[in-house]
């Protein structure tokens, strides 16, 4: 009986909360709020909150068209692989130091790898489509990945070092649960002066990794006709769109874990509501506002911005933490 209960508990965590069902619903709601806020900032009424869900339902009923010269297996499997990796990532993000579906000693490293898979899936899918527009888009996607991946890695190392100095004898931890525990005992990371540059860097990293405007250089519909997604339709396109929404929620939730982990109550329902509120605030700051007020960046501008200002902010925090500040 105990084994059955354990299995049912695992299935609930994986399939419902904090796993697949909750992640999908939260991602669609967050995307709807983002679109509504952008519209309001541009003096428009905007679509209903559930418009992202309506769009996905419409795509589910559309015909799947595969280019004649495309690699069919890679073309169809890439969107599913990218979405699956993000759903697995949701299982690793704790809501408090005591509540996490799947925990480990190195889940920060696992999260870093899993967040790279969707970008690789987009590149593989675009390359397999045999489209010249997708070819341009995948080259831009590769530039974007190289631009934000190094600053993201340094931000994660900085947070792990800061938490590890107090919570681990080795002076370094790669456990998100330990990061949450440190913040529960010593306050949120964002309240530490040495971590503020890293938090700012993370806020800049999120829109580029999500592929949100003005960092949507790989799609750029007015320039290269949706780029990496030019040849996609129907269910595969729905998977890509859903992965975009889920990645928005995953990254904003990861920011909450890394820098706002001290604002927890220990009550799962209350912590869930707080997490959703924090995700909306983070989305507004780093995705909605740039989308509403900025024109799309050029490819070289994205690379230069992330390897100067964003990388500089991350390195400043890393240096301060390594000096024990």
Structure, explained:
With 325 residues, the protein is an all-alpha fold. It has one domain. The protein has helices at 2-15, 20-41, 51-60, 72-90, 107-128, 132-167, 176-186, 196-210, 221-224, 234-259, 268-293, 299-322. Helix 2 packs across helix 10 (234-259), helix 3 packs antiparallel against helix 10 (234-259) and helix 6 (132-167) crosses helix 7 (176-186).
Quick synopsis:
With 325 residues, this protein is mostly helical. 70% of the residues lie in helices and 0% in strands.
Give me some keywords for this one.
mainly alpha, 325 residues, globular
Structural class: mainly alpha
Major sheet attributes = none
SSE succession: HHHHHHHHHHHH
CA-to-CA gap between the ends?
Answer: 51 Å
Low-confidence stretches: none
| pLDDT averaged residue by residue | 89
What is the number of helical segments per DSSP (H or I, 4+ residues)?
12
- Kindly estimate the percentage of residues that lie in beta strands according to DSSP: under 5%
Q: Taking Cα atoms only, what radius of gyration do you get, to the nearest Å? A: 20 Å
Shape: globular
Q: How many separate structural domains?
A: 1
- Helix percent band: over 70%
* Beta-strand segment tally: 0
């Amino acid at each position: 009986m105990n084994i059955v209960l354990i299995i049912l508990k695992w299935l609930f965590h994986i399939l419902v909360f904090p796993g697949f069902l909750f992640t999908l619903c939260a991602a669609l709601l967050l995307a709807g709020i983002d679109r509504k806020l952008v519209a309001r900032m541009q003096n428009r009424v905007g679509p209903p909150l559930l418009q992202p869900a309506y769009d996905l339902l419409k795509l589910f009923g559309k015909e799947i068209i595969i280019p004649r010269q495309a690699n069919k297996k890679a073309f169809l499997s890439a969107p599913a692989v990218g979405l699956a990796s993000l759903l697995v990532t949701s299982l690793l993000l704790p809501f408090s130091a005591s509540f996490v579906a799947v925990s480990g000693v190195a889940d920060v490293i696992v999260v870093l790898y899993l967040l790279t898979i969707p970008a690789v899936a987009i590149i593989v899918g675009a390359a397999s489509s045999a489209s010249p527009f997708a070819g341009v888009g995948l080259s831009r996607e590769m530039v974007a990945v190289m631009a934000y991946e190094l600053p993201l890695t340094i931000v994660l190392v900085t947070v792990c070092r800061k938490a590890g100095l107090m919570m681990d004898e080795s002076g370094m931890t790669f456990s998100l649960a330990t990061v949450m525990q440190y913040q529960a005992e010593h306050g949120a990371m964002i309240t530490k002066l040495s971590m503020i540059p890293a938090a700012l860097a993370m806020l800049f990293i999120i829109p580029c990794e999500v592929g949100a405007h003005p960092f949507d250089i790989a799609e750029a519909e007015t320039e290269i006709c949706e780029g990496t997604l030019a040849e996609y339709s129907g269910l595969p396109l729905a998977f890509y769109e859903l992965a975009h929404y889920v990645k928005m929620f995953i990254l904003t939730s990861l920011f909450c874990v890394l820098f706002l982990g001290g604002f927890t109550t220990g009550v799962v329902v209350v912590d869930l509501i707080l997490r959703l509120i924090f995700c909306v605030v983070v989305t507004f700051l780093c995705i909605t506002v740039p989308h509403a007020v900025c024109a799309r960046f050029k490819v070289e501008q994205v690379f230069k911005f992330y390897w100067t200002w964003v990388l500089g902010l991350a390195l400043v925090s890393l240096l301060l933490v390594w000096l024990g500040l």
